[in-house]
Amino acid sequence: MRSLTDIEVDIRALGRPDFDWSPRTKAAIKAWEDARPDLAARYSELAAERAEADMVALAAYKAQRLRPQLPTVTESAAAAAIETDALRGVRGWLQGSERWCLVLGPVGTGKSVAARWAVSQVLDTGRWAFMTSAARIGQLSTWDDAGELDRLERADLLVIDDVGAEAENDHARVTLRSLLDTRHDRGRRTLMTSNLLGGNLSRWLGARITDRILSSYVRVETSGASMRKPTAAPKEKP
Predict the structure, then answer these.
(1) Contact 196, 204 (CB under 8 A)
(2) Alpha carbons 14 and 40: distance in angstroms, whole number
(3) By the 8 A CB rule, do 89 and 103 touch?
(4) How far apart, in Å, are the Cα atoms of 60 and each of 22, 120, 122, 170?
(5) What's the chain look like in SS3?
(6) Does domain 72-221 bear CATH number 3.40.50.970?
(7) Cβ neighbours around 216 below 10 Å, total
(8) What is the C-alpha to C-alpha distance for residues 134 and 204, in angstroms, rounded to an integer?
(9) How far is CA 145 from the centre of its chain?
(10) How far apart are CA 209 and CA 196, in angstroms?
């Protein structure tokens, strides 16, 4: 998709009068369209392209502004994602119709990178996609953070990273389960990553949510050694 700047340059090159809400301008535009039907048709094409680019830019802006900040390494890795079990599985899920995707496996096997890649793919189509962490959801208040919760409930794609790493308390569990329940009722697609496997994840999510996930889901399992670079130990001062 072309940038808004490039589209605006092409529109101005057509020589169509700018609209300023005055009757005089409306008449000038009508005269221009009657005299140049070929350029008027081209303007309609460019206006539609501009509207689509506007929608994509707005979705990207909202996703960037509203979601919690992700580690820079996750952002940059997703932009040039290497082929992993996680990425292959997430790509296949995006191309299908199942509502839920569970990406499960050890730390450092590409789960978060594949999930962030999925967000970028959905944003590129002009739809809403957000990525947040289970820990962040567990901190949200239905009173103080109602707006953020509403956006998470309505997003076309919601990625919840690191399910099982959030605080183990009633508020965190209820908030997460309520969000997942609402998204299921609205028919939205949800991707979750977790280091928990099998029964551990089921117990964490609860029987109701587990049953709903089983109705339409893809399970992606990752394995292997961690791809994360080890952090160098600090040097001792002499």
Answers:
(1) yes
(2) 9
(3) yes
(4) 34, 9, 10, 33
(5) CCCHHHHHHHHHHCCCCCCCCCHHHHHHHHHHHHHCHHHHHHHHHHHHHHHHHHHHHHHHHHHHHHCCCCCHHHHHHHHCCCCCHHHHHHHHHHHCCCCEEEEECCCCCCHHHHHHHHHHHHHCCCCCEEEEEHHHHHHCCCCCCHHHHHHHHHCCEEEEECCCCCCCCHHHHHHHHHHHHHHHHCCCEEEEEECCCHHHHHHHHCHHHHHHHHCCEEEEECCCCCCCCCCCCCCCCC
(6) no
(7) 14
(8) 12
(9) 19
(10) 16
Packed helices 111-123 and 37-66: angle between N→C axes, nearest 10 degrees: 150
Confidence (pLDDT) at 171: 82
* 31-82: pLDDT as tens digits: 999 999 999 999 989 888 877 876 666 555 455 544 444 444 445 545 556 7
What are the residue ranges spanned by the domains of the chain? 4-66, 72-221
User: What is the C-alpha to C-alpha distance for residues 152 and 160, in angstroms, rounded to an integer?
Assistant: 10
Q: In this structure, are strands 100-104 and 189-194 parallel, antiparallel, or unpaired?
A: parallel
Single-letter residue type at 149? L
